Structures are given as structure tokens and as C-alpha cells.
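Following up on my earlier message about N-(iminomethyl)-L-glutamic acid. Here are the inputs again, as you asked, copied directly from the submission form:
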Amino acid sequence: MNIGQLLTLRSESGNSGPRRGSELKELGILAEAAVLSIGGKIVSVGSAKAALRDPWIQRNRNEITEIDCAGNVVVPGFVDSHTHPVFTLPRLVDFEKRLEGATYEQIASAGGGIRSSLEGVRNATKATLVKKVLGVLGDIAAQGTTTVEAKSGYGLTVESELKSLAAIREAAQNWPGTVVPTLLGAHVVPKEFQGCSQKYVETVCLEMIPKAARGRLARFVDVFCDRGAFTLEETEQIFQAGRANGLSVRAHLGQFTETALAPLLKFDPASFDHMDHVSDSDLAQLARRDTITTLVPGANYFLGLKEYPNARRLIDRGVPVALATDYNPGTSPTLSLPMAMSLACTHMKMSPAEAITAATINGAYALRMADSKGSIEPGKDADLAVFAVKDYREIPYWFGASRCRLTVLNGVPVSH
Ligand code: NIG
Ligand code: FE
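Thanks, got it. Here's what our run produced:
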């Protein structure tokens, strides 16, 4: 109740599908609004006055838990469609080396980077990992996020990848929000397989993916397709195995080098993430499809890069874009989508409205969950975030401190 600005994210043009071009600015704002939810689902959305006059609400007022939003802004709970929460330690040595001038790729090829996180996860008990992931989920909700994609990818053995996914599942069962698990067994080639990456790809395709699918431990298969990780051909093989096992696919792509998209588009990927490098002809293909381009400016910021993905070029060409944190210990140790949105505005020239759309409904499309997530509409899950601001543009404006005071996760309110 008493919502000053309610950003419903309902499509104003009535177009279905991910938001593109000028649709990214359609926030569907209602002033002086109220939302009613029952059993974790949104039942009605409208003016506060109409809610007070509603005979059903009047009759059941004593049964309804009323949240007074004090004239503040309410948005759909953010959908963070790209995180790597299953690791044990921060990577502080790499951090310092980069400050002294080494690049991410130089550190990775010298044995740092992703490979230096493997031992911690391989040696950790599942219980330790559950505790770590639960901590992440609690903290991410305090930033306004209610749906989180969570990748494995720091074990890179069959056993430790399945353990990571099991830890994600157990943590998710103990959190009121929504978690979407992704198998990222193809994060890098671990050193036991150096020089015979094909053997590792076979392990991913013939063991990890089938076991994760059979155990219903993952919804997506992800691949880090770039220089120093997996080739386009290897990515195609892994996508093929993912689809054959009933899983959808997504990829880390174009972070360091440009890769041709056509061979991958035939697997109908849910998203391509990073995409700092992409050709004009590939943009034209993306503009015709529902594969989301997920931008993760936290990684550019934390790696100290001057360049950011060219969001304006993507948006102006009609490519549907989402924003995510890419929370991970190497390139983006942040759980804050408002911070990613702030970077998107200041460094990528997205407007605050575009950034909010990219972090809500288009994030939901990136997870293939737009039927239930990403906007405040009757029938959708009751996922909301209340920010202590009077104008939505303040969300990316006040960077570095969370203004989120309350989240509602599948109908469960949590104060922050
Ligand atoms: O999304 N690019 C690949 N994966 C991560 C980095 C992982 C790491 O350094 O631990 C990313 O940036
Ligand atoms: Fe990532």
C-alpha cells in the first residue's frame, strides 16, 4: 500500500516477447498504487484508492498483511540472470597483480584466475558450499534481487560440479526467492586436461551433462567460449549435448574476442553474455531472435577496462538486452544490480528506464521465465522490491549503497 511510484513493467505497446529499442523505456508506472498478492501470486495491481474501495479487500482486511511503502518506489524484484556463487575464497592476489598492470588473461594463463579457485571447491564439503550460497542469496535480496541464476563452474570434475549444483539446490530450498541452476562445467580446461581439451569436453558431454540432467540439478548448460577457454567447435559440441539431454543453453561470449554467432544460434540459446565484441551482421541476426544479450558491466569495471559493451549500438539495432551482476571472485565480486545499472547508465549511456527494464523483464526472458517473473502483473509471482526513494531514477543514481528496504520473494516479505 501507499506506493508512490509503482513500476509495473507491463508492456505499453502490447508486444509480447523481450523488450527491444524504445520498448526498453516502457516502465508502466502507476502513481499512488497498491498491489494485492495471495499465496505468493499477484492478484491485483491498481490505484491505492481503488484497493481501499474494493469490497473483497474491505471484507478481508483483517486477514491481509498490509505493507506501508510510505510513498516510496516499488519495482519488480530484480532478475539477476548471471551469477557464479559457488566458490570459497576471494581472489586477492589476482586483484593486486592486476593493479600492478597484469591483465586478466595474463593472470589466467599463469595459473591464476578460474583455475586457482578449483582447489577450494573440490576440497569443500557440500555443507560448506550450501552455507556460502545461502549467504549470497540473503545478501543479494538486500540489493532488490528476488530471482537468481546460479552457475557451478569452480570444481571442474564430475563430482565437484554435481556437488556444486546440489549445494545450489539445497540453498535454494532454504531461501524464499527463486534460483535457476546452470551447469558451467565448461568454464576452463582444468590443468589435468591441459593439452587434451577434447577429452575434457567429452567428460562434460558424456558425464557431467547427462548426470546433471538426470538429477534435475540444472536447467541450463553454459560454456565460456573465448580465447583461453573453449573454442566455437567445442561450444557447439557442448550445446549439442545439452540439448540432447533436455537442457537449454547459454554462453559467455565475446568478452575478449569476437565469435561468429550463427553456428550457435541453431541451438536456440537463451542468452549470450558479455558481448563486448560482436559484428554488425551478427547484431542483425540477434535483432530477429529472442536470444537475449546480457551485459555485465561489473566485469569491465572490476577489470579496470576503459571500454564497456556498446549498449547503445545493441539497443538501437533492436537487440534485446538484459543486465546482470556476473557475481564471481575473478571479474565481478558484486551482488548489486543497482550498481550494474549505475555502470550501465554512466559508462554505457543506457537511460535509468532502460537499465531497469534490462534488470527485470529482460532478465526474466534471459532465464525463460517471463511468464512468471520480471513484471508486476496479475498471475505473476509476487516478487517485489521497495526502495527508499521517491523517483525510480534514484536507483542507479545513488551508487555504492543499497536503498532497498524490503523485498517480497514469492509473497514472503523480508526487510533489509
Ligand atoms: O563471467 N568469463 C568467464 N567467467 C567469469 C569469470 C570467472 C572468474 O574469473 O572466476 C566471467 O567474467
Ligand atoms: Fe560469468
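One observation from looking it over: DSSP finds 17 helices and 15 strands in the chain. Hope that helps, and feel free to reply on this thread.
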